[in-house]
Amino acid sequence: MNERLESVLTFFEKTLPSYYNSKEIRNSQVQMAVNIAGILSSNSDYRSILIDAPVGTGKTFAVLVPSIYNVKKEQSKKIISERVIYATASLNLQAQLRNEELSILQKLGCLNSFLIAKGQTHYICPKRLQQISISPMKKRHLEDFCNNALEGERTEFERKYYPLDDKTWSKINLESQSKCKHCDLEWACPTREHRNKFNDMRHQVVVTNHNQLIQSVLNVLDYRAPIIDFNRAGIVIIDEAHEFEDACLSQIAQQVTFNSIIKWAKETMYEYKIKSAVRVLKNSTDRIRRKLDTSSGRHKLGLTEKEALKEIQKILEEYQSRQLAYQAKKLFKNIEDYDEIERVQVVIKNALNEVEYTSWINIDENKNDSIVVVTKKFKSEINKIINELSRKNKLIFTSGTLAVKGSFDHLYHSWKGKPPSSTTSILTTVFNYSEQAIVYLPKHIPDSPGLTSPMFKQYCDAIGDEIYELIKITNGRTLILATSHKQMEMLYNYLQPKLSLLNIKFLKQGQKSVELLSEDFKQDETSVLIGTGSFFTGLSVKGKSLISVILCKLPFPPKDDPFLDLLAGGDDYNDRMEYVDIPRMLIKLLQAGGRLIRSIKDFGCFTILDPRVHDKKKGYATQVIENLKQQKYRITTERDEVKKFIELRMNMKKYPSYPKYKRDKLSIPESLQRDEYQGIVVNLSSSQDKFSVQVPSNGNSVFTPKQLAFYREIRLKLGMNDKLLKTIKDPFGMLKHLYQLAIKKEFPIDVLDTFPYESEEQRQNFQRKIKDNNSPSKVVSYILSPKEIKELEKNWAKPKTGIK
Ligand code: SF4
């Protein structure tokens, strides 16, 4: 059996069950691991795979195990060092990886070392700490932390001391890595020290987030250093990949907040004029905000806003044309201030360029509104990012909600095509939803009147009453998903006194870091947690701590969202619904519901508090119901039925089990059905049109490992595959090939100088031959599989014809 396949099967059939002391083996988990092993095999022509792995598949182990096998195999060859980059969209998933899968793989001896590389804002900045005024005791604790921290990360502080609220943290975290360049605390800074390790190749797995990975690609495309060096990876896993295009947006978009325009206006001597133009923008956003039913959103620039921006642009141009720039530059204490004014000017200029850019006002729930500008070629930019990532890596996109209605077309629509050499896989769920879950769609819930309506409080109280009744049925154990911070606050204030009378702990997003809040929720079985965005994904709570998920409103994308217009790219209404709006809504809905059932023993109720789901005139309502039915959820409109279901399941002694695992039910990819190349190089000597075969008895190849590594590295850097060409006959042929490629592609490294020669004599000899354009040698090399070598050995003495 193929060694890679055998190793993966052994892990899932023996190692993992014995670690958990269980006989449970999940078909879909093993199938996913096998599919990934197939892609990573050197026999495979695929470079990327998209896998829809429903909740319960156990996708993290399924993706990590074959990937780590690959890295170890590569490292053992000592030809070139590889690692796995695992990018997630949520902090919760990063925490889960650290505390569960990666730790277990370490304990089992499958993994030597891994590193969590969070986004910069999760790390403390001792410099900023010096500058803020907070209570002396808190400051002392934070300073102690800076002196002793391992990573300088927020959760590390909270574990050691106490929770910090979001507001305090935002004053002391690392705002921009560029500030570290000239920092006098650089050498005593735990954050800097930890972030410097992001590219330490000793870590076989690096866990990061989408944003940091995408920013690294953009840096490379712009000839700057990446934060995470993905070009030395080998395997890049993009988990929660349904969020990939949103993450691309946050990195590609140019953004400037109204407050920062005012801040920099002070430096231009035109403060008054700019402030009055910004006031027009702010008045305008206040008007928009009053109409929105969520606390944040994107709003197309209207005539009034465009006029205000033109006014600011005119002032900034005047500022430059009077040649004050140079003088102003001298006045600034920090050159970065001047650069920032220039950046503001570019963003405003682009916002007014409607031919090349799409722009909007970003309405922020904390009132830090901004102008956002994105190139109209946004989808091509996503395509470029994916191509760059796959140039030197095998790419794995996965998520529990990647496919919609059995198709990935909505992704290809946004990514402007399929990833290079890609294949797909949709796994079946391991759960029995009809037995394990009930969906409750009450009919008596009022319509949401909009966030700024005076009726909003009344509406929140009404849904608060329904939530309270449900919490009494489940005795806590509930996750409430609000659609805005305002709704979350109102529900929290309404329910908090009632729940404290029931002796139920009520947790709210923002009280402490997401990671610690999730831990508290898991540990206190009857607690209730209310949150928004980040709790739709990533939160994984098995068992009776979470038996009720309540979604306060259907998660429709906002109407007239300019970003979705950009993704739609001029589609007609039906196509836009098909490829953009409906997939987004269904994905979010399934994600919310997906928090409920995390194992075969789990059960619970998924409630949607939105009367629109019953409106049959609305096409989307039918789609929602159909989608829930497709998942085999049982649906009710009666609370009493929920009560009966929960009571029955709470008292149930016997749990259902996963479908029985059978190895012969697996579908084995073609690439794993035969042996792989082992990297053994044999010499084939040629004489005219006949070839005789010589397998080196001492096991040496005609190339040194360093030469092979150099060859691979240069070919990959030039955007080519790294296979050894059959026409390359010996080290000289290798050098000649690389030299010609480098000249053709204007590669900046001098390969003649950097090629790993075996001796000084060889260096001089090869360089002279290259210069004389003298070709040569009658030895050819070919990488053979063990089976092929045996075949050749059998016919050892016989001359062979035509082996190439
Ligand atoms: S090195 Fe960076 S993170 Fe550390 S104190 Fe300086 S600016 Fe802050």
Automatic annotation (TrEMBL):
It comes from the Bacteria. Gene3D superfamilies: P-loop containing nucleotide triphosphate hydrolases. InterPro entries: ATP-dep_Helicase_C, DinG/Rad3-like, DNA/RNA_helicase_DEAH_CS, Helic_SF1/SF2_ATP-bd_DinG/Rad3, Helicase_C-like, P-loop_NTPase. GO terms for molecular function: ATP binding; DNA helicase activity; hydrolase activity, acting on acid anhydrides, in phosphorus-containing anhydrides; nucleic acid binding. Residues 15-319 form the Helicase ATP-binding domain. The keyword Hydrolase applies. SUPFAM superfamilies: P-loop containing nucleoside triphosphate hydrolases (SSF52540). Residues 466-643 form the Helicase C-terminal domain. One of its GO terms (biological process) is nucleobase-containing compound metabolic process. It holds the Pfam family Helicase_C_2. Keywords: ATP-binding, Hydrolase, Nucleotide-binding. Belongs to the helicase family. DinG subfamily. This is Helicase ATP-binding domain-containing protein. It comes from Desulforamulus profundi.
